[in-house]
Amino acid sequence: MISLAALSVAYADGRRALDDLDLSIAPGERVALIGPSGAGKTTLLRVIGASLRPTTGAVRLDGVDPWSLSGRQLKGLRARIGKMHQAPPIPPRQRVITAVLAGRLGQWPLWRAVASLVYPLDIAGARAVLEPLGLAERLFDRCDQLSGGQLQRVALARLFYQQPEIVLADEPVSALDPALARSVAVALNEDAKRRGVTLIASLHAVDLALSEFSRVIGLREGRIVFDRPAAQVLTADIDALYAGAPHAGAHDTPDQRVPSARPRLTRCA
Amino acid sequence: MRPVMPRRRLMLTALVLTAVAASVWRLDLISAFAEGQDSLGELLGFLQRFAAPDTSPAFLAKVGQGAIETLAISLIGTLLAVLGGVALALPASGRFGRLSQIVSRFILNLLRSVPELVWATLTVLAAGLGPFAGTLALALHTTGVLGRLYAEALENAPPAPEAALRGAGSGAAAAFLYGTLPAVAPQWVAYGLYRWEMNIRMAAILGFVGAGGLGAQLYYALSLFHEAQAATLIVAMLLLSLAVDALSGWLRRRLVVA
Amino acid sequence: MSVSQHDPAARGRATALVVAVCVLWPLLQVAQFDLAVLFDTGNLATLGGFLGTFLPPATDADFLGYLASATLDTLAIATIGIALAMLIAVPLALLSTRSLSIGRLDGRLRPVSEAIRVLARALTLVLRGVPELVWALVFVRIFGLGPAAGVAALAITYGGMLAKVYSEILESSDLSPTRALLAAGSGRLVALGYGLLPVASDELVSYTVYRWECAVRASVVMGFVGAGGLGQLMDQSMKMLNGGEACSILITFLLLVMAADALSAWLRRQVR
């Protein structure tokens, strides 16, 4: 159970990313967050993911305030929350197997993490999550040899490998072409349904939100505009949500720096 | 094209020429080289003896031994510096707070500013004459150089992968190993190889202050006016550094570019 | 199944590890790697006693006089060394620069000029291939102890380095004015003066000034083998285990290097 009460997040200059929000999400719900750019979707996901502390108000995950926990307990809590990002946060030179196994770093002791860098400790487990995504063949390839869509599916495999109780996905498909976007959205929902876990995803593609998720929340300027089962969302709701707002265009993906092969000359070489 | 500033350029040129003239006067070089007039013949004879390197098998065997020692000094010294550089770059990039950042940067600057040869005079005191002193001297100076470069690489690495792992409950060390290390490791290796190429040349020299290797033999040969042996040793130094360049280039292609 | 159940990289990693151990272990022996030596009480006492005398730094008037004089010597060695290096580098660079070759232009092979170019490049390689410290040691045998050896050593190695970089800068500059001049029948020197130099001069000057900064450091280090200046003074103090003097010299060296950095940065800003 996720519950937020009178929750606000303010920037240093006083503007509010989230403004007096009340929300509760039951286990097993599959929620789509939609709304124009700057509506506060990312901020909301970060608050639920125990990555960002709200300025005022309360956040409770299974009745627990994450910010009252010790550092060790907070790590344990985060290990139970899976996160997906628009740009897969995977180092380009890492191998697929390592990138997938990194999903359980929160559950592994350090010795296991180090040993797995020398020789991957759970090849079968990584293969099992890559297989349904059509990437089992690429298990030992390096991530910089994959296409953008394949890389996003590796990130998905990492998430499935983590087996989290709550899945938070921030624009997981907006960098993908429509067919691929749908397949990733479907995979996220199938996994959540099968394991009965909570899924919250922010989306720009309204059609995917309506067709794949069980509940849709419209967010604008840090407030909830509507919050209904997906089947009951009206065209008028959507029009009102995006009215006057510039529709999200191209998203800038963070650049992945490729290390230069030859270091620049140091002094007096 | 940029506008030309003739007056300013003229003044700068005059300044530089004055500095050169003052330097010549200061060192009294004209008389120094003039006195060297009579040593011109000596110089020619010296060069003549240089032109016939000593290639007797016994001496070549000794040179080979010195070359291996020089190689060992450069390689072990560079590897120690890589370890030390990593150990100091982590705090110097600000991962463990402001205080440790200031302290580790100060240490790196100190290590880097003191030339290898000065370190060698100190390590000879600490470890006695021999190759180990040279290894330590190289390691100390190179730690300063590499630590700074490594810290820069850390600061420039994309933060997202490590942050994502931390957000998924990973510990700090594991998140670094899986999130940031893959991004910086190729640069770290490239810098290390590049310094190795410089250190093989330096290792050949450190023997001048008693730190082993080809340098010690060259110092000895020149002190006793054995020019033929000195010539062999200089050629050996050149060949050794070219060989290390090639090896390091091969490793760079295997580890960094691939 | 087409992908194996085992990590295909494992064998390569294991091999690399075995090779590394097989190479490093004997090299550790050769380098006489032994950390215990560092904790030998006798050595610790010597080093500790020496380092203990670093404070306070020597400040008596006689010594400060020597120090100032040695600092001036070091600066003078670097300055003349670079000036002579330029005299060596300019002709070498011109001879080895492809873009100033007329043969390139019309495609006809000129074996003589090609041979000269190869020779010039080989000479450049030899000059900078041998470290300046080795040259310094050789020249000390010829000119005796003192600055002359340092100047000669700097002139030769830095001559080689400058020649290489000069020719690289010239070749990477915009060549169209030069080509036009050469095509119109100008000589190589005219083409250089009116075609290449206006384009490349800033970079050439800037690199030379930067090298001067390096020469200051190098001339200190060369002093250790008797080539005059601060290094020679430091070598003497260290051999006599006079920590106070060594400390003063070291501080002077660090300040000098910082000052040279600043001066060279200022000069390079002026030409930009």
TrEMBL record, chain A:
Repeat is among the record's keywords: no
SUPFAM superfamilies xrefs: P-loop containing nucleoside triphosphate hydrolases
Region Disordered, annotated ranges: 247-269
One Pfam family recorded for the sequence: ABC_tran
Keyword field: ATP-binding, Cell membrane, Membrane, Nucleotide-binding, Translocase, Transport
GO molecular function ontology, one term from the record: ATP hydrolysis activity
The ABC transporter domain, residue ranges: 2-246
SMART domains recorded: AAA (SM00382)
Protein's recorded name: Phosphonate ABC transporter ATP-binding protein
Species of the source: Denitromonas halophila
UniProtKB/TrEMBL annotation, chain C:
Gene Ontology biological process terms, A to Z: transmembrane transport
Gene Ontology annotations for the cellular component aspect, listed alphabetically: plasma membrane
Predominant cellular place of this UniProt entry's protein: membrane
Record Gene3D superfamilies: MetI-like (1.10.3720.10)
Membrane topology: Multi-pass membrane protein
Keyword Glycoprotein: no
Transmembrane regions: 12-28, 35-55, 75-97, 148-166, 178-196, 216-234, 246-267
Superkingdom, natural source: Bacteria
Entries under InterPro entries matching the protein: MetI-like (IPR000515), MetI-like_sf (IPR035906)
Pfam families: BPD_transp_1 (PF00528)
Localization terms from the record: Cell membrane
Keyword Transferase: no
Domain ABC transmembrane type-1: 71-264
This protein's UniProt keywords: Cell membrane, Membrane, Transmembrane, Transmembrane helix, Transport
Similarity section: Belongs to the binding-protein-dependent transport system permease family.
Protein name: ABC transporter permease
Species of provenance: Denitromonas halophila
